[in-house]
Amino acid sequence: MKRISLFLTGLFILCGWIGAQNDKISFNTTDHDFGTIGDRDGRVYFDFILTNNSDEAIVITRATASCGCTTPIWSKEPIEPNKTGTINVGYSPTGLGSFNKNVSVYINQLPPIPLTIRGEVIRSSSVPKKLTPEEEYPIAIGAYRLKSMELNFDQIDYLEKKTLRLEVFNNSDKPITQKALKLPKYIKVDISAPVIPPKTQAVIDVHLEIQDINLYGYLLGDFNLQIDGIPHSFHYSAVVQDNFSKWTASKRANAGKINVNTAEINFGNLSSGNSRTIKISNSGRTALNIRNIQSFDPSISVSNPRFIINPGEIAEIKVIIDNRKIQSNNLSSTLAIITDDPKKPIYEIVVTASKRL
C-alpha cells in the first residue's frame, strides 16, 4: 500500500480541483462501494458518469487501473457541452477480504482524476461457477480477448526491472497472430504464442527496465501490438523514483530535505508576464537531488529540470508558460518535482492561468 500511495501522490491533489471545478465537470460519484461480492460470482461492474458542464467539448484520453483485477472501459468520442460520458469499471474477485482499488481518469491535458471502487469479497456458498470466455476475458478486440489492457507498473527505481503479464484468449475457430511492433527502448515484450490456436489462451510478458536517469518522474505512454495484422495501442504507466527501502537508516536520516516557497502559481491572464520564479531550498544534512521537474501540460516549462542543491542552499527556477500552446481558455495543471528526499519524493505545484486573447 505504501508503494501505491506514493504513485498516487500526484493524483489525490485533484480531489480539490474536482470540487472547485464542479461547475464545468461533474461525476455522479467518484467512490463506489460494491458491498459484499461472492468469490465465485464473477466480475462486477459500475458506471461512473461524467457530465460536461462547460461550453467546450472534452475528451477522456485514457483511464488506468491500479491492478490487473480492475478494468476500466471509457467513452472514446468527444463529450460535447451538457452531454455525458461513461467510465465503466469492472472488478474481478481475486481473493477473500476487503478491497480498495483506484482508477485514474485523464481528460484532455489535465492531470489524472482519481476514482475509487471498494467492497468485500466473501466465500460463495454456491457450486464453483465456470466462467465463460467473455466473463473471464471481458475486453474484446474482435475474437481476441483480454483480462486487461492496462499496464500499471506502479513505482520503479532507476536500473530496476519489472514485469507485468497480459492474459489473452482466442475466442474464435481460427488461429490469431500477434506480435509487438516498435517498442520504447525501456520496454521489452515476450509473447508465449505468436500464433494462438482457436479457443486457446496465451500470455504476453511486458518488461520495463529504466536505464536512463532522465526518465525520473511519471512515465506514461503507449505501444502497439499487431493482432491479425492490425496494430492496437496498449497504455503503460509508472512512476520512476528512488527506492528508499534500499537505503540504510543513517542515509535516510541524513538525506536532503526539500522546501519550496509555494504550492501554487497563478499567472492570472498573463498580463503581468509569462514567467514566475520559485525558490527551492535544502534543509537536510546532505545534497538534495532534484531528479526532474515534470509538467503535465505542453504549455508549461521550467528553466532547469534537473540539478543538485547542497545543504543550506537555495535554488531559483523559472516556470514559463507559452501562451500559444494553451489549449483552452483556462489552464489548470500541475508541476511534479521529483526528489531523493525520502519524506517528500514528489512535491506538487498547481499552475493556473487564463489564456491571453
Written description of the protein model:
The chain has helices at residues 2-7, 9-12, 14-20, 133-136, 249-253, and strands at 25-27, 31-38, 44-52, 60-65, 70-74, 84-91, 97-107, 113-122, 139-141, 144-146, 151-156, 161-170, 176-180, 187-191, 195-196, 200-209, 217-227, 230-240, 258-260, 264-266, 275-282, 288-295, 300-302, 307-309, 314-321, 330-339, 346-354. The radius of gyration is 22 Å and the shape is globular. The protein folds into 3 domains: 2-122, Immunoglobulin-like (Sandwich), CATH 2.60.40.10; 133-240, Immunoglobulin-like; 248-354, Immunoglobulins (Immunoglobulin-like, Sandwich), CATH 2.60.40.10. With 357 residues, the protein is mainly beta. It is built from 5 helices and 27 strands. It has a 5-stranded antiparallel sheet with strand order 9-10-12-16-14.
Quick overview:
The protein has five helices and 27 strands. The chain is mainly beta and 357 residues long.
Give the key terms.
five-stranded antiparallel sheet; Immunoglobulin-like; 357 residues; five-stranded mixed sheet; globular; 5 helices; 27 strands; mainly beta; 3 domains; disordered N terminus
Helicity, as a percent range: under 10%
- Extract low-pLDDT stretches: 1-22
Largest sheet: 5 strands, antiparallel
Extended strand count: 27
- Distance from N terminus to C terminus (CA atoms, Å) equals 46 Å
* CATH architecture descriptor of the largest domain: Sandwich
What is the overall silhouette? globular
Topology:
Blueprint: H1 2-7, H2 9-12, H3 14-20, E1 25-27, E2 31-38, E3 44-52, E4 60-65, E5 70-74, E6 84-91, E7 97-107, E8 113-122, H4 133-136, E9 139-141, E10 144-146, E11 151-156, E12 161-170, E13 176-180, E14 187-191, E15 195-196, E16 200-209, E17 217-227, E18 230-240, H5 249-253, E19 258-260, E20 264-266, E21 275-282, E22 288-295, E23 300-302, E24 307-309, E25 314-321, E26 330-339, E27 346-354
Parallel strand pairs: 2-8, 11-18, 20-27
Antiparallel strand pairs: 1-3, 3-6, 4-7, 5-6, 7-8, 9-10, 10-12, 12-16, 13-15, 13-17, 14-16, 17-18, 19-21, 21-25, 22-24, 22-26, 23-25, 26-27
